[in-house]
């Protein structure tokens, strides 16, 4: 399916293909999106490549941050669905993207989340007249098939970059190669991807590895064999039904969840390649090993921009804004943590005061409170955000930071820019902007 809703025939008369993104609908959608996520300060910083500085506090933004093309498209289609399918029941498979604020906005428009129990959606009550939105990270083959049988309208927002991974994994499947996915077995995107790795008739397999330690464990097994039961128990929930490490690791193809860390994914590929060469001989490698870099461009650009910022800018601390279950955002936080004090926050409310911040600790998988996080005097704060984070959350974060220094951020913007974006004229023009 393209951008639009289309029939998912099951022998029933097909529904007409509908173009959701007509100019009239998109005009209304753009107005609403603008209204929900408008961010003059962030746009100013982004477009001018400058930074803000006042009362000792300097704020710098990464060159690339926030919404990616896939997320923008998914949000536009969800907003368009609410307009085109007014009067229908509109459901969403899980979350449209991994950002709680955006999901709340979608819910406020009357789009309901389908009930889910232990990862299984309740599709039984759906009718042909209902609309189901498939999120940006896609959905499992069996879910898509069931929706097809029901004959409801589907609005598929699956990102093209996710579909590229599926294509690669289907190639592996068709070649009888086991797909090794570098990703999180519990993440919706990876669940959808692995469902493409197995055929209905069985006989094709996948294994998901998340860490380099897990990679080494599998590579050791490839070289020397080992305790099969221990292997299966270690990777429980991360392999296909009937997977046997003694039989199904003789031909492997590596792909990855689109939002992983680029360098880690490359390392996973290297280690598997080496293990297969050790086991089968370098001269036979092409019969036993395949690989594809399926990190998406948007993830790559955000990681590169942060890497550049960490290398070039002198910063006291980094704020990473985004949903805690967002994979690409969590990797940005990891990159920051390796270099300087980094706080992963989902919105500006987490900046409780200049003395106290509530932030997500990925290792403990919970929010924790840190004290004295914002040094007094001159301080430089770097900010970035994951691909699912709207600019207004960054904007609010910047406002909050300057509140701690008694500064109204909007007044830091140049007068001509304030006029263009419709902000009230500045009274105090003494604060510096750069
Ligand atoms: S992060 Fe990448 S794969 Fe995910 S929606 Fe954005 S562009 Fe697509």
Percentage of residues in strands: 15-25%
What is the CATH homologous superfamily assignment of the largest domain? 4-hydroxy-3-methylbut-2-enyl diphosphate reductase, catalytic domain
> Main beta sheet: strand number and arrangement?
5 strands, mixed
Calculate Rg over CA atoms. Answer: 24 Å
CATH architecture call of the largest domain = 3-Layer(aba) Sandwich
How would you describe this structure to a colleague?
The protein is globular. With 434 residues, the protein is an alpha/beta fold. The chain folds into three domains: 38-67 and 298-420, 3-Layer(aba) Sandwich (Cobalt-precorrin-4 Transmethylase, domain 1); 69-159, Rossmann fold; 161-295, 4-hydroxy-3-methylbut-2-enyl diphosphate reductase, catalytic domain (Cobalt-precorrin-4 Transmethylase, domain 1), CATH 3.40.1010.20. The chain has helices at residues 23-37, 40-48, 69-84, 100-108, 141-150, 160-174, 188-197, 212-224, 228-234, 262-280, 285-288, 297-312, 327-337, 391-403, 415-420, and strands at 52-54, 57-61, 90-92, 112-113, 116-117, 120-121, 131-134, 153-156, 178-182, 206-209, 252-256, 289-291, 317-321, 342-345, 356-361, 366-371, 379-385. α7 links the parallel β9 (178-182) and β10. Strands 1-2-17-13-14 form a five-stranded mixed β-sheet, sandwiched between helices. α6 runs parallel beside α7 (188-197) and α8 packs parallel to α10. The protein is built from 15 helices and 17 strands. The two termini are 47 Å apart. The model is unreliable at 7-14 and 427-434 (pLDDT under 50).
